[in-house]
Specification:
With about 450 residues, this protein is α/β, with parallel strands linked by helices. About 40% of the residues lie in helices and about 15% in strands.
Length: about 450
């Protein structure tokens, strides 16, 4: 066979099996797949490869090409890593109520910026404000697209052209190259760092305050710990200092913890949004998709005066959220307001999941895998909260450890549908069921057995 004997695209389209695919996938995707496979066949024939039936070979290859070309880029993943707020996997999975609400509002018109009572234009950030003030205790609140935006916007609204006092040990960098000094520079505020890396006293803040000072910024070191010879003023003390000099105090808290798991040691040192608000801080900033367990957004909760300044700033329009984020956030907050977040918010439920429950699930999965021929056992391990929340947190867990060809198995699981992301420890692939919804245990077992090429 020679390249000249490759059927035309029109001839390929007439083949019954490909015509049926065109109906399912659409004309343009089908044409792209047929052209790509015809070109691939041309290269094979030019290289001297012998092909018995060129048309049949092209037609047989087109379905796989179509599936690959039209596959969704963003798709669900089973997270078996034990990292609860996994930044690379979308951080917090939404509560069922939040996902349902987002789908409902996203699929219809809504009163996003329409005041139904007054019959005129309304404010889009007003929808979550009632619940935000209720669950945090703040006088007012607004929402932007993430916590970095919240930090930038507050600094721009309150401190552009003036100084912001911050402890040297709080000039943090988190994932993605987000650096507090860089954000401050973009806001137009000027950095005034005080203290040392490990020790900053209230007197250091007081000595730095001048007529150029706009606010004191306190930043929670969300992804690291400083231990040993350390000192840091409390937020209460900073608020009292701010009032003494009539300057604003803002806390960039980050994780958005609302105290749902006071009995969990890993969260013992995590600051509570409600406690920060109660100090009288002018604004407390936190993420919606970390320990709050909602959609990606940044929340600014504080005084009426501060939130009003933020709302009026020109950058607010650039950072505002859409109707689906608003809907998902409102539904998430409703779970906290109803005091059922510990069981209904996935992040909270995973953190609070008893070790005994994880152990029972792990035993059942390991037994199934062993029955299918895999070398699977249950061992002790550790989960972590992740996402820049509760740095150094360790949650005891029970892992399903698989010694059967772990590197190949890990790669095969990542290429599955749905993909499974696990980790390799001590030459074994380990699955942590803390981050796997209970109703996916059966599916996970099937995927592992299938990836290893066995039959369950």
């Amino acid at each position: 066979m020679t390249p000249r004997q490759i059927p035309s695209i029109e001839q390929l389209r007439q083949r019954p099996e490909l015509a049926a695919l065109e109906t399912a996938y659409g004309r343009e995707p089908m044409l792209r797949a047929e052209r790509a496979e015809a070109d691939a066949m041309r290269r094979r024939l030019t290289a001297g490869e012998a092909v018995a039936d060129v048309g049949e070979a092209i037609a047989a290859a087109v379905p796989a090409r179509l599936r690959a070309d039209t596959a969704w880029s963003l798709r669900p993943v089973i997270n078996a890593t034990g990292v609860i707020i996994h930044t690379n996997m979308g951080r917090a999975p939404l509560a069922a109520a939040a996902a349902t609400r987002a789908a409902l509002i996203g699929g219809s018109y809504s009163n996003l910026e329409y005041d139904l009572g007054a019959g005129r234009r309304g404010m889009r950030d007003a929808h979550a404000e009632t619940l935000l003030t209720r669950v945090t205790g703040a006088a007012a609140a607004t929402v932007v697209n993430n916590n970095a935006a919240a930090t930038l916007l507050v600094l721009a609204a309150l401190a552009a052209g003036r100084e912001v006092v911050i402890a040297r040990g709080e000039l943090i960098e988190i994932g993605g190259g987000f650096r507090i000094p860089d954000v401050m520079a973009q806001s137009g505020a000027r950095l005034r760092e005080v203290g040392t890396t490990n020790r900053t006293r209230l007197a250091d803040y007081a000595a730095a305050i001048s007529d150029r000072t706009a606010l004191i910024l306190r930043v929670h070191p969300s992804n690291f710990r400083v231990e040993g010879f350390v000192e840091r003023p409390s937020l209460d003390a900073l608020v009292a200092l701010g009032r003494r000099f009539s300057i604003a105090v803002v806390e960039d808290q980050g994780s958005g913890y609302l105290g749902f798991a006071a009995d969990v040691p890993a969260l013992r040192d995590e600051p509570d949004v409600r406690a920060s608000v109660a100090t009288g801080a002018d604004a407390v900033l936190f993420s919606g998709d970390k320990l709050l367990g909602g959609p990606q957004c940044g929340i600014i909760a504080g005084s009426e005066a501060t939130v009003s300044l933020v709302r009026r700033h020109p950058l607010m329009r650039a950072f505002r959220v859409d109707k689906m984020i608003s809907a998902a956030l409102e539904a998430t907050l409703a779970e906290f307001d109803a005091e059922r977040s510990r069981t209904s918010i996935p992040v909270a439920a995973m953190i609070a999941m008893p070790l005994a429950v994880i152990g029972q699930r792990a035993d059942a999965l390991a037994a199934r895998l062993a029955d299918a021929g895999l070398d699977a056992t249950v061992v002790d391990g550790a989960s972590t909260i992740g996402g820049g929340s509760a740095p150094g947190s360790v949650l005891p867990t029970r892992l399903v450890a698989i010694a059967s060809d772990p590197i190949r198995l890990e790669a095969a699981l990542r290429s599955g549908d749905p993909a499974v992301v696990a980790r390799i420890e001590h030459d074994r692939l380990v699955l942590d069921l803390r981050t796997v919804p209970t109703d996916q245990d059966e599916q996970l077992g099937t995927l592992v057995v299938g990836a290893f090429g066995l039959r369950s």
